[in-house]
């Protein structure tokens, strides 16, 4: 399970079973606000991606949060209140804290779905503006872009830092705006070729760590390699392999900046067995070698720590030892 063990432990066993299904695999979760409150602007509280097991079943009278869910793959059905709906790829449904909700998956075509739960106020009015409302299901005719939007939301929700909540709030608003745009424009923009491109792009976004070849990308979307290349030529500014490489190097840079460690270990995590080839690709994309990025990061951390010590000292920065001033100037 690809999820934060520390954050999951903080939930506690009982709450974990209440908030999250145990009948899922391949999960990725983020947790930003586990104390439901009606104060403040609308923002993500928690969310993630779930691959439902064949026996997946939800039957609840209410939930701790209002939320929105999107079906990316598979089939099933849902009851929202007394209304029963089929679940298919592109289904988007919502629920409030008092919404009666029952969900089942087709065992032969298990659901893969994304969800985000809301903290703050204004969920009802914002969802109505997006064409949804609480306790409602609608189907997006073209929906591959949603997968990428959710993946980015999960990715930023799992990253540490004081700006994570603000970044995820912005991503939630973007997601709602995309839903609103879809329903405002109806099916006029229905473009099957663009939908196939967005599906390819979203799968690269989701699986960049493990994918290594164009054949893998094409196979995942049941297309020929030549077709994937044509789609990227039409709708993107680079080839699919170049986009995959960019995604890998972005993930590698984030790993180096956030976690440090050995370059060869980071290379292996993004699918490179040869650290020298990885370094050449990294520099071609970012303009700096991974070792140089690590050195810069170490100097930046050291300078921050020295600055903090100087700030806690009776001396001002101008009165600090020259080596501290020089280090800060260098960074």
Please give a quick description of this structure.
The protein is of the alpha+beta class and 331 residues long. Helices cover 49% and strands 18% of the residues.
User: Topology as H/E string?
Assistant: HHEEEEEEEEEHEHHHHHHHHHH
Distance between the termini: 39 Å
- What is the 3D form? globular
Side by side, the strands of the main sheet go 1-2-9-4-7-10
The helix count comes to 13
**Fraction in helix:** 40-55%
The CATH topology of the largest domain: Jelly Rolls
Number of strands: 10
Mean pLDDT: 82
Tell me the strand percentage band: 15-25%
Helices and strands: which structural class?
alpha+beta
Biggest beta-sheet profile:
6 strands, antiparallel
- CATH homologous superfamily (4th level) name of the largest domain: Regulatory protein AraC
Unreliably modeled segments: 1-17, 313-331
CATH architecture classification name of the largest domain: Sandwich
Q: What is the CATH C-level name of the largest domain?
A: Mainly Beta
Topology:
Elements: H1 5-11, H2 13-19, E1 24-31, E2 43-52, E3 57-60, E4 66-73, E5 76-80, E6 83-87, E7 91-95, E8 101-105, E9 112-119, H3 123-129, E10 137-139, H4 144-158, H5 164-185, H6 192-207, H7 214-220, H8 225-235, H9 240-259, H10 263-269, H11 275-286, H12 290-311, H13 322-330
Antiparallel strand pairs: 1-2, 2-9, 3-8, 4-7, 4-9, 5-6, 5-8, 7-10
